[in-house]
Amino acid sequence: MKIIAVGQNYREHSKEMGWEDPREPLIFMKPDSAILKNNKPFYLPDFTSELHHEVELVVKINRLGKNIATRFAHRYYSEIGLGIDFTARDLQRRLKAEGKPWELSKAFDGSAVIGEFMPLSELNDVNNIPFRLELDKQIVQEANSSEMIFSIDELIAYVSCFFTLKIGDLLFTGTPAGVGKVSIGNRLEGYIRDRKMFDFKIK
Predict the structure, then answer these.
(1) Domains parsed from the chain with CATH numbers
(2) How many CA atoms are closer than 13 Å to the CA of 108, on its beta-carbon side?
(3) pLDDT at res. 90
(4) For residue range 114-146, what is the model confidence (pLDDT) as tens digits?
(5) Which residues of the chain have pLDDT under 50?
(6) pLDDT of residue 13
(7) Dist CA 144 CA 176 (whole Å)
């Protein structure tokens, strides 16, 4: 099982970070040791003083596929969930400035929070999924899948040109605007529509 993640897939997020919109999907990977599930607490690592939350829709791949055409991509998933791509922002900035790969800021243990998943039958239109993140009961990120630069099906088609997709693979589809720092004691709750998908604390 692998975790494929997408960067800069919402224009407002790119704008808040001072980045230009990508011409093609920006892809990076996380190891399976990055997964944090079952609402377990996240323990702040000591190598960062600026850990940011990035809420994202997560697609679970349900069949083997390679070089998938966009028009057939919908056949390769039947569930969508919600997660968080934790980012050590200070470490990411330093690595980028030094021209180095920045996986260390994205792929550390516990950095891929996975909540519940919903069947597509409950979502109706994958290009119209509202979701949000609450930090201590305050909405900090809120968006809709319709705002993605590259749709879910376009992302699946793109990544399958490079990686064979396997059953159980997870695709993090990018975060909207509103990313920000988390601290010990914070409570993070994620929702698709009004259904709570995860609820955990920072320790």
Answers:
(1) 3-201 (3.90.850.10)
(2) 18
(3) 96
(4) 999 999 999 989 999 999 999 999 999 999 999
(5) none
(6) 58
(7) 9
